[in-house]
Write a structure and sequence with these properties.
With about 270 residues, the protein is α/β, with parallel strands linked by helices. The chain is about 20% helix and about 20% strand. It has one domain: Rossmann fold (3-Layer(aba) Sandwich), CATH 3.40.50. It has six helices and eleven strands. The strands form two sheets. The protein has a nine-stranded mixed β-sheet with strand order 2-1-3-4-11-10-9-6-7, with helices on both faces. Strands 5-8 form a two-stranded antiparallel ribbon.
């Protein structure tokens, strides 16, 4: 499984996404600068990570969507390649036309950073085959513009064709106004492209991939990708940490020998 993580000016979650991929697959993701015009040969998966590309000027993701590398990302998607767009990555994907709709200001007009449950709407996609249908999983949200909105025809198509990937919910999987952190239409937290090969979601599954940081529910998404692509290391990962590791997170290393990694950060 060969992955490419795109680096845009202002993002801050690329290393977290790369780390999650490495933990599950045992392979290091290629980091690709936004100014490049081609993806690495043989790329299976492209990740558009979270953060604040170009400082969120104009609109979130609007400038990054016009970066040189995005033409190659679009070509990759049209050929059936997998694309995972997380948080600011979803905003970029919508601006680039890879996914429909737009992300508006949170209904509460505040940046929201918290643990959040999601309901998995279907478990037969390259991104969700390690989950169960309607399973409630715990991840994190960290965004100010996560309120998903689309026109009526688009919403009918998303709902009718099973293109809603995740919905905000409570721990039992129930949808409610209280469990929706941003006012998103129909509690939509993530959507698919028509061919189910592009997934965009506002929450951060890469935050919760090992017990040290509060849970592993996000790991299933990356395991699903590895399964879908027929390769990856899904078993045998264990962790060795001590108090010195916790106090100095810049030095902690998983016992897989894969090298230095950093704990998750917050960002759009």
């Amino acid at each position: 499984m060969k992955s490419a993580v795109i680096r845009f000016p202002g993002i801050n979650r690329e290393d977290d996404a790369a780390r999650a991929l490495r933990l599950v697959t045992g392979r290091k993701a290629e980091m690709v600068w936004h100014g490049q015009t081609e993806l690495p040969a043989g790329t299976d998966l492209v990740v558009l990570p979270g953060g604040f590309s170009y400082g969120d000027y104009l609109r979130c993701g609007a400038i990054a969507a016009r970066s040189p590398i995005m033409e190659a990302v679009g070509t990759h998607a049209k050929r059936g390649g997998l694309v995972l767009a997380i948080c600011n990555g979803l905003q970029i994907a919508c601006e680039a036309g890879l996914l429909p709709g737009v992300l508006m200001r949170n209904a509460g007009m505040h940046f929201v950073c918290r643990f959040q449950y999601l309901r998995v709407e279907r478990a037969d996609t390259p991104f969700t085959n390690a989950y169960a249908e309607h399973q409630a999983i715990k991840v994190c949200v960290a965004h100010g513009e996560g309120n998903y909105v689309a026109d009526e025809a688009t919403m009918e198509r998303l709902e009718g064709e099973g293109l809603v990937a995740f919905r905000y919910c409570d721990a039992s999987g129930k949808l409610s106004e209280a469990s929706n952190p941003n006012g998103a239409t129909n509690a939509i937290a993530g959507i698919y492209s028509e061919n189910l090969r592009v997934l965009g979601l506002m929450p951060h599954p890469e935050n919760l991939v090992d017990p040290l940081v509060g849970g592993t529910d996000g790991r299933g998404l990356f395991e699903s990708l590895a399964r879908a692509l027929g390769r990856g290391r899904l078993k045998g990962l264990t962790w060795s940490v001590d108090i010195a590791t916790v106090l100095d997170s810049s030095t902690w290393t998983p016992d897989t020998g894969s090298g230095r990694s950093l704990p998750p950060t917050t960002g759009d």
